Amino acid sequence: MKQFDYVRPATVTEAVAAAAQPGAVFLAAGTNLLDLMKGGVSRPDRLVDVTHLDGLDGIETLADGSLRIGALVRNADLAHDAEFARSYPAVAEALLSGASAQLRNAATVGGNLLQRTRCAYFYDTASRCNKRAPGSGCDARDGENRSHAVLGWSESCIATHPSDFCVPLVALDAIVEIEGRGGRREIALVELHRLPGDAPDRESVLEPGDLIVAVRLPPAARGFAAHARYLKVRERTSYAFAVVSAAAALRIENGRIAEARLALGGVAAKPWRARAAEDVLKGVAPIADAFQKAARRALEGAKPSGDNAFKIELARRIVVRALTLAAAGTPARIPALPASPFASTSGALHV
Amino acid sequence: MNHSISLTVNGARRDFVLDDPRVTLLDLLRERLHLTGTKKGCDRGQCGACTILVDGKRINSCLALAVSHDGADILTIEGLARGDQLHPVQAAFIAHDGFQCGFCTPGQIMSAIGMIGEGQAGNDPERVRECMSGNLCRCGAYVGIVDAVLDAQGQMDRTNQRRSA
């Protein structure tokens, strides 16, 4: 690991100023960053430790019914907050389907949003990677790429964003609060991550020094609690990233879908909101035909980036199954294997 | 630049001057305190052999910078037994053959104690397997490990009930 300077700012303002310097990065739990630094993938000159900052680890309901989650809240603490899990069950299920219990105890909300891709060529410093070394090329294009992107990719980069947490969050219109050199601003989470285009090294719209201080769920996000699921296909039962995942949330009134929310994970360089599929579902009965039509719409424009054509059909099936499970109703308790299509208690139907 | 930190390790306060901020909690425990029960397996957060409790919660000590954990309360495998009296989870691993080579065992035991404290698994073996998926055992002693965790959890629950009765 390259040598670095360690600084521990006392305030958010100091943290922003310290991290705005070239070569500086924020350190939260470090569960992704330290791994990257050990491998020589990330080589920061300065770590700005934000874990001791006050006021960033609360979960609070605001007067308008929004929920504000501090950026330093640990993934496990959020998922196991009973009120949170009741109100936003798909988000809790997504959190519990990610990583391991040890990592969830450490990893933070803000860090989860900004974790890096798990593309093996990004991690291997002997490989060409436009994300790690701009202009060097992309060895994933002709390499082992069955897990890579099928939506929004470019010739420069076919990596995916690995977060589970972000998938239901974008479906529920989450907002990111950012403290930067120009003060406080906020953006929709769906606007945070960039598609690769010809600059895959620019992964988000954040500017130097920008610190995510909170994630907010708007009041309407609670309206889906009765019919919300996250479903995730992995290459082993637990402790693995998604090959494909989907968050489905429905508001059902008088036997019809009043409003649908749908997002996909593991398919693109960002959590993928499928608004066209949501439109298909509005006002119709929650039945298989409608779900299949929505699934086709959700994957319109998808194309393989390598040996991963199977992911397109897999994603359609996961969309159908996630919608089917959501329509059946949120389970009283998160299944033993969260988000697993193979869990004995998931009630999953093969489609 | 040197960084001074204080930790509580297995109940005792320890002060350190770090001349390098790259030191992880794992390396601090092993190299400075010679508490080598906490194992370095993958050193990348994938195997769980380095699991310790920090402020009561299980984490991977290989991915935790010591300098960032100033003031933390740390429990390692060396802090469990009281003389010859083993912690219930340690005793259960022996009773149920929850290991073969033993390399992953300290991490498994610390993770199990963390898991029992989290209170999410109950006596459902499937939930125990899921909650312990961050600890790999290359010998494949998982059947004994799950039995040991369930048994120890039951004993600890009964002890707590007696205490509160």
Description:
The complex is a heterodimer of chains A (351) and B (165). Chain A is built from twelve helices and twelve strands. Chain A is an alpha+beta fold. Chain A has a domain of 118 residues: Enolase-like, domain 1 (2-Layer Sandwich), CATH 3.30.390.50. In chain A, helix 10 runs antiparallel to helix 11 and helix 11 packs across helix 12. Chain A starts with a strand and ends in a 23-residue tail after the last helix. The C terminus of chain A is likely disordered. By secondary structure, chain B is of the alpha+beta class. In chain B, 36% of the residues lie in helices and 15% in strands. Chain B has a five-stranded mixed β-sheet with strand order 2-1-5-3-4, with helices on one face. In chain B, strand 3 and strand 4 form a beta hairpin. The longest helix of chain B is centred in the C-terminal third of the chain and has 23 residues. The model of chain B has no long low-confidence stretch (mean pLDDT 97).
Key descriptive features of the protein:
heterodimer; A: 351 residues; alpha+beta; Enolase-like, domain 1; 5-stranded antiparallel sheet; 4-stranded antiparallel sheet; 12 helices; 12 strands; globular; disordered C terminus; B: 165 residues; 5-stranded mixed sheet; 5 helices; 5 strands; 36% helix
Q: Rough shape of chain A? A: globular
For the largest beta-sheet of chain A, the strand count, sense and barrel status come to: 5 strands, antiparallel
Instruction: Describe the global form of chain B.
Output: globular
Name the helix and strand elements of chain A from N-terminus to C-terminus, one letter apiece.
EHEHEEEHHHHHHHEEEEEEEHHH
The CATH homologous superfamily of the domain at 221-338 in chain A corresponds to CO dehydrogenase flavoprotein, C-terminal domain
CATH topology of the domain at 221-338 in chain A: Enolase-like, domain 1
Distance between the termini of chain B: 54 Å
Count of helices of chain A?
A: 12
Helix and strand pattern of chain B: EEHEEEHHHH
Number of strands of chain A: 12
The most extensive interface, with participating residues per chain, is: A-B, 34 and 37 residues
Mean pLDDT of chain A: 96
Please identify the top-level CATH class of the domain at 221-338 in chain A.
Answer: Alpha Beta
Cα separation of the termini of chain A:
47 Å
Major sheet details of chain B: 5 strands, mixed
- Assembly status: heterodimer
Across the major sheet of chain A, the strand order is 4-5-8-6-7
Q: Write out the strand line-up for the largest beta sheet of chain B, numbering strands in chain order.
A: 2-1-5-3-4
Strand proportion of chain B: 15-25%
Q: What structural category do the secondary elements of chain A indicate?
A: alpha+beta
